């Protein structure tokens, strides 16, 4: 770890408000109500270390996520699922274009929201290459960043992502990141979080024990 590398705190949202589609197993805890979303945004808006992202391409990204950002002069990266575009409850093609026009960044979360570990060559092409191409075509700009579905990864997967030229890969490892690092751990905001829990668990100084634990998790994932 180089000295003086600036800290980044990546805060990730999924769904806001009431889902307009059937949720996947285990997904409900990642939906927060609108008030909580705005409170969390207010808690992080003034912190220059924070970078905001949205996963899964839910329609709440454009309906509630974007207005909250714009009201506060914030930008974010939206990691969209190419396979869900234009389906009920998910972003439409024109929504992705509207996000771009509003100054937001479009990243890829793959095609079908399946873990990227251990994919065969065909599924790997679909998830890592075709989804990215679909999103780049719609956004009208290259897609250079990816967020790992369900946060799962291993060394082999990271090798594939590097070979494909991704400039940053976003995980869900719940610890601080360093500016410019290729791997960017993120904190997901979950049901039950408040502005206060975000301040203490994400923005607050990381205790050495907790930090060591999170670094270990990341190291194990990279090496396995
Ligand atoms: Zn996801």
Automatic annotation (TrEMBL):
Entries under Pfam families matching the protein: Polysacc_deac_1
Tell me the superkingdom of the source: Bacteria
* Domain NodB homology: residue ranges: 48-224
Q: Which UniProt keywords are listed?
A: Signal
* Subcellular location, record wording: Secreted
Q: Which InterPro entries match?
A: Glyco_hydro/deAcase_b/a-brl, NODB_dom, Polysacch_Deacetylase
Write down the SUPFAM superfamilies for this protein, in alphabetical order. Glycoside hydrolase/deacetylase (SSF88713)
UniProt keyword annotation of Methyltransferase present: no
Q: What is this protein called?
A: Polysaccharide deacetylase family protein
Q: Which organism is it from?
A: Nocardioides hwasunensis
